[in-house]
């Protein structure tokens, strides 16, 4: 595996997809999904040009932070977050992507208040209504957004979505388009927060080019950078 070549290849594909859609490639952030990667691999990715890492599991996030593995890069939390682990994440990452309930929102608000900071978040939308995935339904999204705006220690930055797994090229564009429309709709209804709503997190290794074509401002890429993931240890 040549991380430098992989990073360059992904960045070039993002740029090409952006230009084809009439967009500025500089509008799209590449988030390296570092799930089950080692400290050394993360450091190598940062040395290869990665400036943003996304972690899925709290245990791994904590371990990598303690090892200073993310030095030189920003860190987001992109996985499912349990309320009992909120205190291990709030204030330790710049953005939490996966807020999908009023209960989780309140737990983040409470911890951010304790720390005297304002935590940036995204609301996760279950765009296809898959029972196996987290995320608020499109119908429930406006209410959750209102609750987020009412939290003084939370800054709502946008939306995140994980569409269905597909091996057919272009199959998820309809979902990306739907999320983009939800993003625009929510932003238009929140005049007090419009300037903060700047992040649309969607697209992974199999479909990030389609996501860019449909308006993503951040793509979360793992396999295309690091290759197939090594086996996971049991979740803690």
Your description of this structure?
The structure is a single chain. This protein has helices spanning 3-20, 39-47, 58-66, 102-115, 141-149, 173-188, 208-213, 223-226; strands at 29-33, 52-55, 74-77, 95-99, 119-125, 154-161, 199-201, 218-221. With 236 residues, it is of the alpha/beta class. It has one domain: Alanine racemase (TIM Barrel, Alpha-Beta Barrel), CATH 3.20.20. An eight-stranded parallel beta sheet has the order 7-6-5-4-3-2-1-8. The two termini are 29 Å apart. The relative contact order is 0.16. The mean pLDDT is 93.
- The tally of helices reads 8
CATH architecture: Alpha-Beta Barrel
Spans of at least 5 consecutive residues whose pLDDT stays below 50 are none
Number of domains: 1
Which range best describes the helical content: under 10%, 10-25%, 25-40%, 40-55%, 55-70% or over 70%?
25-40%
User: What structural category characterises the helix and strand content?
Assistant: alpha/beta
H-E order: HEHEHEEHEHEHEHEH
Which oligomeric form is depicted? single chain
- Cα-atom radius of gyration: 17 Å
Instruction: Name the CATH homologous superfamily.
Output: Alanine racemase
Reported by name, the CATH topology is TIM Barrel
Average pLDDT confidence is: 93
Note the gap between the termini.
29 Å
Shape: globular
Number of strands: 8
Give the DSSP E fraction (strand runs of 2 or more residues): 15-25%
Give the CATH level 1 class: Alpha Beta
